[in-house]
Amino acid sequence: MASPFLTLENRTQVCREYTKLWADFFKMFADDLVHRKIHENDEAAFQQILSLLALNHFKFAELMGDKLKDPEGILEVLCEAVSLSHLKMQSEAQFSKLQVDWHTLFLDMNKCLGKLQSELHMRQEKKKKKKKK
After folding, report:
1. Residue-wise pLDDT tens digits, 26-60
2. How far apart, in whole angstroms, are the C-alpha atoms of residue 101 and residue 15?
3. How much of the chain, in percent, has pLDDT values that exceed 70?
4. How far apart are CA 115 and CA 133, in angstroms?
5. pLDDT reported for residue 133
6. Rounded to whole angstroms, how far apart are CA atoms 39 and 79?
7. Between the CA of residue 126 and those of 13, 112, 130, what are the distances in Å?
8. Are 88 and 36 in contact (CB under 8 A)?
9. What global pTM score does this model have?
10. Alpha-carbon distance 56 to 58, whole Å?
């Protein structure tokens, strides 16, 4: 019997949670940082999300398997986003590139989630058909 950790349901849940955390990460620097006063609690919250993403990256990448195109790109974005203060000091070109890279990965994560949900739906439909027979 397969490990419950590797079930399609679990993989879908892990993908959903990681993608939500990725979106929360972006919300912290989506607005203009240049004119924003960054407080200590802002940095702490940013570091917490950054740490959670980094800690869960391996599990996420492994469970998504070939459904996720560029899992290493996630680490590249995380390494570039050292802190809110660091992001605030980046040039407009650097910051724009980071946002584009984040967005590209977000789309890839959502594609991955869509593939998993599609597989889950197809499996549930097969089970329904078997029960009707």
Report:
1. 999 988 788 889 999 999 999 999 999 999 999 99
2. 18
3. 95
4. 28
5. 64
6. 21
7. 21, 21, 6
8. yes
9. 0.88
10. 6
Cα torsion 112, 118, 119, 123 to 10°: value is 160
Q: Which residue has the tokens 């240049």?
A: 34
Name all domains of the chain by residue range, CATH numbers in brackets: 4-132 (1.20.58)
Residue with tokens 């058909």: 129
Q: Say which residues have a Cβ less than 8 Å from residue 73's Cβ, sequence separation at least 6.
A: 101, 104, 105, 108
What's the chain's length in residues?
Answer: 133
Six-digit token string for 5? 């950790």
CB-based burial label for 107 (10 Å; 0-12, 13-18, 19+): exposed
What phi-psi label fits residue 68: left (phi over 0), alpha (psi between -120 and 50 degrees) or beta?
beta
Using alpha carbons, list the distances in angstroms from residue 74 to 53, 55, 96, 126: 9, 12, 16, 35
Amino acid occupying residue 26:
F
